[in-house]
């Protein structure tokens, strides 16, 4: 079982099973009973519904028959293709399904020891930052002896039906699984982050380079146990799950089960005029209705490939809802793709690793602007900065940050009519490298996510070295809800929430003084830097100093015109003392001061830009100039 597991509804599988075995009674779940309310909340159960245990459906029930496979699952009468497609993906990755179906051998029926059977099973799902262990009994709804909902190709196999029941329990009942987002189920199965890719908007089918890049990315993701699903978005007015002439179904979730770049043998080169085939395999949760174009089951393309060649290529063709198609055709027909990445945080991995930081918080309303934490998106300029704010650091020269905002799941609230997700998103700002207090003025926005009423919103952002503030928001002001913020970076990001608006007076304030002025200083760039005898290619860095505190830039190599973009904020007790800016030349033995300048940064300077000439420590020598932006205020919460 995964570490740090929470028992759902305080039901401990081990204790419950032990009690059942001791009493020699099969488990009957009082919290998810064999009753109509477990099935539906808006409609009645089908006529003739009978709850049966697997042993009442077949003579030799098993969790798995000949192992677990993406071809096992068949969607039932429930409109939950999104979940079944995700489960198809799950079945392709042992490291994933063994976490979702813990101790599967111990849970399975053992014909040699029937006394160990207690009619109880459990499954693990990742929910809102925790692995949750869901315990169920094995009574399943049937009509005329047939399972109503998800079933397996083999009538003796029950892993998919029991998994679906556990997921239904987690979400309130079976009906709450009607209509959903494959990305959510993939995250629940993995604890990863789902990255949506819109093939249509990116026009991937029309751009060969984009297509190659996407194929390479998907192949790498699949090889590293990421789970992938895809769909075709219906046009406005088109019917959901309408079948196209090529056999594909619109508005229907497909699970991607394999991706291959196939090197063709010499005997096949003449047929396909190519040395390589770029192929993708998918599965329809219905277990039927397949692609009927090139490379579909029984197509002319496969007839040209002998059985031995297929085995050499590592592909199989069966009439079971699973099918191959070329990546060109895939990009031509499919509009949306979801890649659920299992972020690698292992220190021992040979692949790219990430450092994860996560924090829980909430959007909450208050009439007091200083306490309100539900200001809406940036369209609401007066209240936007009242939202929760989080700061994190990028310590590499440049780094990709993966940012995922997730709200608490509301699907279980559908019964009470409050199951709709909040529309949410986030903005990212670059701020002063020493900022400790909340932002009160809009700064340079470097990234913005889309706003959508999805359970999670993801954005991959390329960032330069520095400190950043991410502001998660609901689209409109006045909304309430809990959320989880996850940030993945190359190095430790020191993610933390900014809760204070300004420095608070301390018991030492009477002796040490209190801040009277706040100043934000941005050193944008320098030009014409020179040092006699050093040429024009300098290795330089900058320092901003104020009242014994300082911020320092990284070293910019081989330039006389660096773009510093160095920002510092200072709470000044002696406003008459100027802020000092120094530019240094980095050298092996001893750094050399190239030039300096003093900036008054007086109260009232708001967004003031100045080009200032650096003063050289050497008489009569010109060192260059810098571009500085200054904002100062006697209101300590103004910046």
TrEMBL record:
- GN (gene name): LOC117350029
Which residues participate directly in catalysis?
81, 252, 284
Q: What is this protein called?
A: Calpain-5-like
Of the GO CC terms on this record, one is: cytoplasm
Keywords, sorted A to Z: Hydrolase, Protease, Thiol protease
- Pfam families referenced in this protein's UniProt entry, alphabetically: C2 (PF00168), Calpain_III (PF01067), Peptidase_C2 (PF00648)
Q: Which PANTHER family match?
A: CALPAIN, CALPAIN-5
Q: Which organism is it from?
A: Geotrypetes seraphini (Gaboon caecilian)
Give the record's family classification. Answer: Belongs to the peptidase C2 family.
The terms under GO molecular function for this entry are: calcium-dependent cysteine-type endopeptidase activity
UniProt-listed CDD domains:
C2_Calpain, Calpain_III, CysPc
Which one GO biological process term can you cite for this protein? proteolysis
Which domain of life does this protein belong to? Eukaryota
All copies of the C2 domain together span 499-614
Q: Which residues form the Calpain catalytic domain?
A: 26-343
């Amino acid at each position: 079982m995964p570490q740090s597991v929470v028992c759902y509804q305080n039901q401990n599988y081990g204790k419950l099973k032990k009690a059942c075995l001791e009493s020699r009674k099969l488990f009957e779940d009082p919290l998810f009973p064999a009753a109509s309310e477990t099935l539906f909340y808006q409609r009645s159960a089908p006529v003739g519904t009978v709850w049966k245990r697997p042993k009442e459906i077949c003579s030799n029930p098993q969790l798995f028959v000949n192992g677990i496979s993406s071809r096992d699952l068949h969607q039932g009468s429930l409109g939950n293709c999104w979940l079944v497609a995700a489960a198809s993906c799950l079945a392709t990755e042992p490291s994933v399904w063994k976490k979702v179906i813990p101790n599967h051998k111990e849970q399975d029926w053992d014909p040699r020891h029937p006394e160990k059977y207690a009619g109880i099973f459990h499954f693990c799902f990742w929910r809102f930052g925790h692995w949750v262990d869901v315990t169920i009994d094995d009574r399943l709804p049937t009509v005329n002896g047939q399972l109503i909902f998800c079933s397996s190709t083999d009538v003796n196999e029950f892993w998919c039906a029991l998994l679906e029941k556990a997921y239904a329990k987690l979400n309130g009942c079976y009906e709450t699984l009607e209509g959903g987002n494959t990305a959510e189920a993939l995250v629940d199965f993995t604890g990863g982050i789902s990255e949506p890719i819109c093939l249509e908007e990116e026009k991937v089918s029309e751009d060969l380079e984009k297509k190659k890049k996407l194929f390479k990315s998907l192949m790498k993701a699949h090889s590293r146990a990421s789970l992938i699903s895809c769909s075709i978005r219906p046009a406005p007015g088109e019917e959901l799950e309408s079948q196209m002439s090529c056999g594909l179904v619109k508005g229907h979730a497909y699970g991607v089960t394999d991706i291959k770049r196939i090197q063709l043998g010499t005997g096949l080169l003449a047929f396909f005029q190519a040395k390589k085939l770029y192929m993708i395999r998918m599965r329809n949760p219905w277990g039927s209705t397949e692609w009927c174009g090139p490379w579909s089951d029984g197509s002319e393309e496969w007839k040209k490939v002998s059985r031995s060649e297929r085995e050499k290529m590592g592909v199989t063709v069966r009439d079971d809802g699973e099918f191959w198609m070329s990546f060109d055709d895939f990009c031509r027909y499919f509009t949306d793709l979801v890649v659920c990445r299992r972020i690698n945080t292992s220190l021992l991995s040979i692949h790219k690793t990430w450092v994860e930081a996560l924090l829980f918080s909430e959007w909450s309303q208050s009439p007091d602007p200083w306490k309100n934490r539900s200001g809406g998106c940036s369209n609401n300029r007066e209240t936007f900065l009242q939202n929760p704010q989080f700061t994190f650091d990028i310590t590499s020269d440049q780094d990709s940050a993966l940012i995922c905002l997730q709200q608490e799941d509301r699907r279980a609230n559908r019964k009470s009519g409050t199951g709709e997700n909040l529309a949410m998103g986030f903005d990212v700002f670059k701020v002063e490298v020493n900022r400790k207090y909340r932002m009160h003025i809009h700064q340079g926005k470097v990234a913005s996510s889309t706003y959508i009423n999805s359970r999670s919103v993801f954005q991959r952002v390329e960032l330069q070295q520095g400190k950043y503030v991410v502001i998660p928001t609901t689209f409109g002001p006045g909304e309430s809800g809990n959320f989880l913020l996850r940030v993945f970076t190359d190095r430790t990001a020191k993610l933390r929430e900014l809760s204070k608006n300004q420095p608070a007076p301390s018991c030492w304030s009477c002796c040490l003084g209190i801040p009277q002025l706040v100043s934000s200083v941005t050193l944008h760039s320098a030009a014409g830097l020179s040092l006699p005898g050093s040429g024009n290619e300098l290795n330089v860095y900058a320092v901003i100093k104020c009242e014994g505190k300082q911020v320092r830039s990284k070293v910019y190599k081989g330039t006389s015109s660096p773009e510093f973009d160095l920002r510092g904020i200072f709470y000044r007790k002696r406003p008459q003392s100027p802020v000092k800016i120094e530019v240094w030349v980095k050298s092996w033995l001893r750094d050399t001061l190239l030039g300096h300048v003093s900036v008054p940064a007086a109260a009232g300077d708001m967004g003031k830009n100045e080009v200032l000439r650096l003063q050289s420590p050497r008489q009569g020598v010109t060192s260059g100039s810098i571009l500085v932006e200054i904002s100062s205020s006697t209101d300590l919460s103004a910046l």
